[in-house]
């Protein structure tokens, strides 16, 4: 009994010593870790920026982006080139050299191209010997772009005339002397040979009249500056404007501007027919 009591005291004391020693060791190991400050977040890695070469604007290769290169995009076409290739080149050739379907445009000049486009005669809707006057297919800016493009083919040609106010009396004399034989004295137009016609001038503007005088479209002869001066062309355009007005139709029906001879013949035939009908009606009443 005495031995057991003596041996039990030292054993409990040693266990307490061991527990305290283990706690101390554990505190020495874990304590610094718990008391140590939290680590600061490290900054993200810095990527070196690309260095432009030969200028301030980086190239797609330097920026890492992809895009069409200049060679693959091709040259930018202006409006006149685009319209010409779409609407004219199939007949007149890519460079205006002409083909079996259309004449050359080299040397025709801006006035001729502008006249054909603004009167709607070009481009053709179907092949015919003499295209009629109709509304233009292109807008005014597109016509101007096409005229510039065709003029770039070279060869000269009459420029687009500038029309000013003209003397109507002088224009009448010039019209009767140079135009009435084909277009009639009233500008109503007449038939020519080979299924050709001299068109009516009722829709022609002053600039179209001046261009036709300088260019001579179809069978019409051209009148260069050595034949008719700019002032005379202005006078002709002014008189055509008078023909288009109602100033020449006073006192009677115009009958489509067929001219005084034709209008007088129609009046004579109609009057004679009325007289015959009246005489016949009177004779029928006398028989009763």
From TrEMBL:
Keywords, ordered alphabetically: Heme, Iron, Membrane, Metal-binding, Signal, Transmembrane, Transmembrane helix
An example Gene Ontology molecular-function term: heme binding
**Residues spanning the membrane:** 265-283
Q: Extract the signal peptide range.
A: 1-35
Q: Where is the composition biased (Low complexity)?
A: 48-72
Which residue intervals are annotated with compositional bias (Pro residues) in the record?
Answer: 38-47
- Ranges for the region named Disordered are 35-79
Q: Where is the Cytochrome c domain?
A: 75-154, 166-244
For this entry, the protein name equals Ubiquinol-cytochrome c reductase cytochrome c subunit
Taxonomic lineage of the native organism: Bacteria, Bacillati, Actinomycetota, Actinomycetes, Micromonosporales
């Amino acid at each position: 009994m005495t031995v057991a009591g003596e041996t039990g005291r030292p054993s409990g004391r040693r266990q307490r010593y061991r527990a305290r020693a283990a706690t101390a060791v554990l505190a020495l190991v874990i304590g610094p870790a718990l008391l140590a400050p939290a680590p600061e977040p490290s900054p993200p890695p810095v990527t070196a920026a690309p260095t432009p070469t030969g200028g301030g604007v980086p190239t797609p290769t330097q920026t890492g982006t992809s895009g069409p290169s200049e060679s693959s995009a091709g040259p930018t076409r202006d409006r006149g080139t685009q319209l010409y290739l779409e609407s004219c080149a199939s007949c007149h050739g890519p460079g205006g050299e002409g083909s079996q379907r259309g004449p050359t445009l080299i040397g025709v000049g801006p006035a001729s191209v502008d006249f054909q486009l603004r009167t709607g005669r070009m481009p053709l809707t179907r092949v015919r010997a003499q295209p009629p006057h109709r509304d233009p297919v292109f807008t005014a800016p597109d016509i101007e772009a096409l005229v510039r493009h065709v003029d770039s083919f070279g060869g000269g040609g009459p420029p687009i005339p500038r029309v000013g106010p003209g003397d109507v009396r002088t224009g009448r004399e010039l019209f009767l002397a140079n135009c009435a034989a084909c277009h009639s004295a009233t500008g109503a137009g007449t038939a020519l040979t080979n299924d050709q016609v001299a068109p009516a001038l009722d829709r022609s503007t002053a600039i179209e009249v001046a261009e036709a005088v300088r260019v001579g479209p179809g069978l019409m002869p051209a009148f260069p500056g050595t034949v008719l001066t700019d002032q005379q062309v202005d006078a002709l355009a002014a008189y055509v404007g008078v023909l288009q007005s109602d100033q020449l139709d006073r006192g009677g029906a115009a009958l489509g501007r067929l001219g005084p001879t034709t209008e007088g013949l129609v009046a004579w035939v109609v009057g004679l027919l009325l007289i015959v009908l009246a005489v016949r009606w009177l004779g029928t009443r006398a028989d009763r």
